[in-house]
Amino acid sequence: MTRHVLVLGGARSGKTAFAERLAIRSGVKPAYLATAEALDGEMRERVASHRTSRADRFATIEEPVALSRAIRAAARDHDVILVDCLTLWITNLLMANLDVAEAVTELGATLAQIEDTQVILVSNEVGLGIVPDNAMARTFRDLAGSAHQQLAEICDEAYFIVAGLPITLKGESAN
């Protein structure tokens, strides 16, 4: 079994659908670990829609900040954990004034310790556009890019999703 996978792509690129297909193929007891927080009406509707769409296929765990702890706990009962998404998690850490680099390092250490459960990480690639015009957005972009690099090194497979199509960056093709 492939251990850990990183799935990157732009907004609405099909990365989550691709990751869900990987998770369903890979495990018999998959968990969906969501990092989003429903802070407004539109986000509450999105979260509810996502919960409904995957209810019969995944156990849902919601954790906006303590990702490593949630992965370790979920690994006791699940053979595959889909984490969606890292960029929302990074945003949550920034908004809580927590150390993102330290949290990413902890996540990497957690992945290295998890042996019997596959972890599939989904994240938005935010480094392909223009340089953001404000310091916070530049910091976010830089932290996301660093996180992606660190996690891609740890993961056995990495994919970039464009128009719903996976481009294999590392490992064997999952087409």
Describe this protein's structure.
- It is a single chain.
- By secondary structure, the protein is an alpha/beta fold.
- It has a single domain, classed as Rossmann fold, CATH 3.40.50.300.
- 45% of the residues lie in helices and 22% in strands.
- It has six helices and seven strands, in the order E-H-E-H-E-H-E-H-H-E-H-E-E.
- It has helices at 15-26, 41-54, 67-75, 86-95, 100-113, 135-154; strands at residues 4-9, 30-34, 59-62, 80-84, 118-124, 157-162, 165-170.
- A seven-stranded mixed sheet has the order 3-2-4-5-1-6-7, with helices on both faces.
- A hairpin with a 2-residue loop joins strand 6 (157-162) and strand 7 (165-170).
- The two termini are 16 Å apart.
- Catalyzes ATP-dependent phosphorylation of adenosylcobinamide and addition of GMP to adenosylcobinamide phosphate.
| Total DSSP E strands | 7
Order of helices and strands: EHEHEHEHHEHEE
Number of helices: 6
Q: What is the count of distinct domains?
A: 1
Biggest β-sheet: strands ordered side by side in the sheet? 3-2-4-5-1-6-7
What would you call the structural class? alpha/beta
Multimerization state: single chain
What is the average of the pLDDT values? Answer: 92
Task: Describe the sheet with the most strands.
Answer: 7 strands, mixed
Radius of gyration from CA coordinates: 15 Å
- The name of the CATH topology is Rossmann fold
What percent strand? 15-25%
The share of residues in helices is 40-55%
CATH-scheme architecture: 3-Layer(aba) Sandwich
Task: For the record, give the distance between the C-alpha atoms at the N and C termini, rounded to a whole number.
Answer: 16 Å
Shape: globular
CATH homolog superfamily:
P-loop containing nucleotide triphosphate hydrolases
Unreliable stretches covering 5 or more consecutive residues: none
CATH class: Alpha Beta
